[in-house]
């Protein structure tokens, strides 16, 4: 992959990682201004079953406020998602600012995919535990 494509990939990864974290901060502020909830779950609304991501926004927000226990109560996967997104975004920012790669390209992609798999695994485990405890 060319250097230009690698840089574009890093910029997109940085934007997605930190953009998702920024949303967890902005959603409550927007809801407070507008007076109504915008963080609705279609799965919960239409199927009556919480999706794996239910509570992630509240969980990450609680974690960023320093409430680890409360964060796990909202969604078990929330802290894992936040750590992966912060680490990925931080790494991409450092690489982009220094304009050099600290590890080989193939490992960077492998680690990014591993982070995605960790987040997905945490979401599935959280969802299964929610399904088991609610029955």
Question: How is this structure best summarized?
Answer:
The chain is mainly α and about 140 residues long.
How would you explain this protein's 3D organization?
This protein has one domain. Helix 1 crosses helix 3 (56-64) and helix 3 (56-64) packs antiparallel against helix 4. The termini are far apart. The protein is an all-alpha fold. The protein is built from six helices and no strands.
The rounded distance between the terminal residues' Cα atoms is 49 Å
Mean pLDDT: 78
Question: Whole-number radius of gyration?
Answer: 17 Å
Which residue ranges are poorly predicted, with pLDDT under 50 across at least 5 consecutive positions? none
Assembly annotation:
single chain
Quick one: overall form?
globular
Q: How big a fraction of the residues is strand?
A: under 5%
Please summarize the sheet with the most strands: none
Helix content: over 70%
SSE pattern? HHHHHH
Number of domains: 1
Defining traits:
135 residues, mainly alpha, globular
